[in-house]
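Entry 14. Structure prediction run on the chain below.
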Amino acid sequence: MVDAATARHPGGPAEQTRTGTPLVELRGVDKHFGDLHVLRSIDLTVDRGEVVVIIGPSGSGKSTLCRTINRLETFDHGTIRIDGRELPDEGRELARLRAEVGMVFQSFNLFAHKTVLENVTLGPVKAKGVKKAVARARAVELLERVGVANQADKLPAQLSGGQQQRVAIARALAMDPKVMLFDEPTSALDPEMINEVLDVMVGLARDGMTMLVVTHEMGFARRAANRVVFMDAGEIVEEADPETFFTAPTSARARDFLSKILTH
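Output returned:
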């Protein structure tokens, strides 16, 4: 298996170098909020084991795109496929497919009245019928992996923001997802807590987890991404490997965006 550090700079435009198996496919996806056209004919493929980072100005449609992939947001036109299966509209089939798509949000969304360990075990037990003892053993393993095993018996309110977000990552991993979606996972954190979450995400990338990450953390994009997708006004304006994108963006919109964020 090629880790993220090796695969990061494939040596040419991203679409020309992708040779993997498609895991997430969006074709012609459109989304409106009233008169606002927030996604405009989105075509995007994420290959198995690939890390795709989506960046762009606020209001460009990044989070909406992320949330359509497991139908947290509906969409008006187009198709989305996960591992070759079209995303159902509703019902048990949608629930089953959602279980294969891990999601980490800006806010941690942990159950406040349950311990850290209970938060991580609940999904596999309730949604997948995993035995409690098996789910508990797996949860302990995952909490160790994200560096918060010593917090297992605490309530979320007793943890720092960075610790809570790492628990949220462990909770998503407990469902054994095929792909992980991250929607601005560090935006609600104090600056000193950001790196501890990003380090966990970099580790997942190196382990071969398929990831789609909406973020403003350009350092993470450089470290872990196979491909950077730049969005503006509901469109994918360009995409490339990180080295190409950050040193030689082809569109005026991307150059303007980078000139503003990389000088601060």
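The longest helix spans residues 191-206.
Filed with the rest of this week's runs.
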